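User: Teach me something about this protein's shape.
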Amino acid sequence: LDPDNLDVERRLAADLMADNQTDAALTAWKDIAAGDPTDPDALAAIAEIDEQSGNLDDALASIKKARELSSDSLKLQFDEGRIDYMAGHLDDAAKIFDGLVAAAEHPSGQYSEEEKQDYKMFLDNLAEIYKEENQIDKEIATYQKMATLGGDYEAYAYDQEVQAFRDAHEYDKAVSTALAQMARTTGATKLNC
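Assistant: First, the predicted structure itself:
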């Protein structure tokens, strides 16, 4: 690869990734990162390839370097949290996703559809970490935040709350949560079984 023509190399590296030629793509992205050490996208691409190859420590090192170059990127923060989670660094992942949730929260409760999707994704990942750590109270609180988004997000959140209670063998709470949601959506107050 020609280190003097990084734009062409970036297109080539992206094409190689799209064609699942991961070894060649990794080499190309590493050449790009060497040619332009201020390019967070090259480091993020290296992290993605390392992640797909199961090299989570390398992926984490690359994504952390990318974040240093672009500290305000929510995508890079999300990717770091996701890789931390996969590597079993649950406390680190929880801190990242908790920060993303805090950054995405609007005191007014007013969100665009895109903001709702992002907020839900951050909350979902945080709740999954709490589930892994058997922190049911925090998992439930996370889904309760999601329920404030209303509509399908609310229905999904209550379904997840019920499942969390079931997984924790807290069946009375699972039933009461399901009944409360049913009352909110249909006006019914008891199951007809």
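Now, about its shape. The two ends are 68 Å apart (CA to CA). The mean pLDDT is 93. If you'd like, I can walk through any region in more detail.
User: That's plenty for now, thanks!
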